[in-house]
Amino acid sequence: MSDFYDTLGFNAQVTISSGYYDSFKPAPSSSRCLSLKQAILECNKNPVIAEVKIASPTLGIIRENKNLIEIAKAMERGGATAISVLTEPKYFKGSINTLSKVRRAVKLPILMKDIILSSTQIDAAVNIGADVVLLIKTLYDRGYGEIELGNMIEYAHEKGLEVLLEVHTETEFKAAKKTKADMIGINNRNLADLKIDLNNTKKILKTNNFERLVVVSESGINTLADLQFLNQAGVSAFLIGSSIMLAENVEEKVREFVNA
Fold this sequence. Notes:
By secondary structure, this protein is of the alpha/beta class. It contains twelve helices and twelve strands. Helix content is 40%, strand content 18%. The strands form three sheets. Strands 1-4-5-6-7-8-11-12 form an eight-stranded parallel β-barrel, surrounded by seven helices. Strands 2-3 form a two-stranded antiparallel sheet. It is globular. The mean pLDDT is 94.
């Protein structure tokens, strides 16, 4: 029985085939590389990865597609450790052009948040200035990837990118620990049914050794209490999108999370 993971995987393949990423051809390698992993480890407050996000499958349009560059700058002023930019066009209304513009506007590490299944997308990430890419383990386990997960991680590394590998279950977490991913993201949202449970991160970390891992908690972080709950669970960083994008004052909202 198919679920939203399959919907995302199938539609990502359609988007890839449409040529959406093809205009960004491989560029000569550059010495420019900002490490999200290092930025998280060196942060002396709450490492917040603030997300430029126009829409989501559950909320619909979160914020109109305007002033996104100013929003990214406000996130940086608020003390964000990094900026995540949605580039998936169908369900999140993202744009690779937006990421390219954000790259020129801020000095922080940038995560390309997309349904990445192809080396073409990795090449595009390099050329638009991303430092990190998100890979979703479930989609590779279901065979949607152009190549196997380990090979995609290796390809990203060859291109100078770090990898945030997203998991949702304890089984996936254990398997992710054996990969060469730079960071592991635990999604509190089950993309099968789109339900959120912050206890998912706590449950996984409670029963698994993660001492030397950089673990990022994703989704459902709406309040300072949410962040503090996850902080106590032992996560390294927090990926926060909707609650920041919905805030009237983005800079202040980011600052609140950073200092919580």
